[in-house]
């Protein structure tokens, strides 16, 4: 499908205390018409600034913004207002006017677009049916829950039939149940109305629930992007890894480490069909080693799974023979998952040094190493003990 939004090498520079601050640096994004595209990252990553360039609430210092292939970067006046009328915006804080009713809040958007008064009430009723708030048409914002306020905000953003909907942390102020309801509503709007949605979040649950494609930002730079499953199933950048690990929550309490038997700690990350293979039992039986699962978690992107296990691989034989068998078992484990690394806890020097290592299969474009030490990458170090 054709791109509806293209950000071409966009940079945004602000001035702070007389010095330039680059909030967005050379970002390029392609959003296909009809998809839900996510931009994720920790606070201060530049997500909101980047998205606000789409409707030119922030003007790029350099680069281009294209809508339907048309360069809109320099639009002003009536042409800019016409562009913005086709792009709805949903804010984290709802931005409702407290002293007017729900109907009047939505009517502001219709008035701004010069919709005749006779057509406003029917359109408002239609929008409130869409978001499930017909009975709240004459209520005031103070009489609404947080989720209901966000539904009104969504209705207002859709008032003038936009083709694009921008959502800036639209669920981060909501509880889990309400978040799920708002996400279900946005998915229905996307499917039924064909509205393209660009959604900013730092919440992994949101990303996995509704995004088709995702871009990960850090310090104003897009560090990784692709399909949501590929990006989070095989994260390449440390920021993406941190997001995934925070979501999966895989860590061994430090107090338990002294109680662990001798062995080597391996973190395995698997995805999709690999989640259903009897990997642990197969390798344990073939190599006659003990593999204890110490911790793990799994998340689903629709029917596709990503997960992490921390296992302890131990020899059943002592000395060099046992060390060799353990290494062979580890090589087999790491060759059959999307990503793996050995954790930096030396439990028993007699069966091999425990150093930080990364093993990768074709998901990273390389073959797994024959020996653990060959795969050592100091830059990839990340201590996962809590």
Short description:
By secondary structure, this protein is an alpha/beta fold. It has helices spanning 47-52, 77-85, 102-112, 117-131, 146-157, 176-193, 204-210, 228-233, 238-248, 279-287, 319-335, and strands spanning 3-16, 19-32, 36-40, 62-67, 70-71, 87-90, 164-168, 196-201, 213-218, 221-227, 264-271, 289-301, 304-315, 339-342, 359-360.
Helix percent band? 25-40%
CATH homologous superfamily name of the largest domain?
A: P-loop containing nucleotide triphosphate hydrolases
**What would the average pLDDT be, to the nearest integer?**
85
Distance between the termini: 45 Å
Strand content: 25-35%
**What Rg do the Cα atoms give?**
25 Å
User: Which class best fits the helix and strand makeup?
Assistant: alpha/beta
So what's the overall shape?
elongated
Q: What's the tally of helices?
A: 11
Q: In the residues, how many domains can be counted? A: 2
What does the main sheet amount to?
A: 6 strands, mixed
Q: What pattern of helices and strands is seen along the backbone? A: EEEHEEHEHHHEHEHEEHHEHEEHEE
Number of strands: 15
Q: Low-confidence spans: pLDDT under 50, at least 5 residues?
A: 346-386
Describe the strand arrangement of the main beta sheet, using strand numbers. Answer: 6-7-8-3-9-10
